[in-house]
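Journal club prep — side note

Before the paper discussion, L.F. wants everyone to see what a predicted structure for a comparable chain looks like in token form. Sequence:
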Amino acid sequence: MGMTHVTVKVRNPAEPEKEWEGLFLVDTGSVDTLAPGKYLRKIGLSPKAERMYELANGSQVKMKITTGELEFMGEIVGSTIIFGDDDAEPILGVTALESVGIEVDPRSQQLKRLPAARLK
């Protein structure tokens, strides 16, 4: 399977002029979005809580989280954002995708817009 990437802007909802843009790996196996902590701090976001996450290898890790705005493919969504290591690859999780009615086509590995966001 190929990897799908999308350009995402992360905004501080309290100060919308503060934003960071990066190329995010689309990961339908990840619930939440992860961004390098240094960029989140640069736009004024700070951790609000910690949450346990299960990694691909089955281990569990407690990570700091916050909330912010994500903009991609012409859509804007409020989202939980994980503070990753400063050099972490940004990951766009499935919750943000589904919230705006976008999914990954399993054949082409391209993002496609659904006729409507799912409410069921």
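L.F.'s comment for the group: The radius of gyration is 14 Å. Keep this in mind when we get to the figures.
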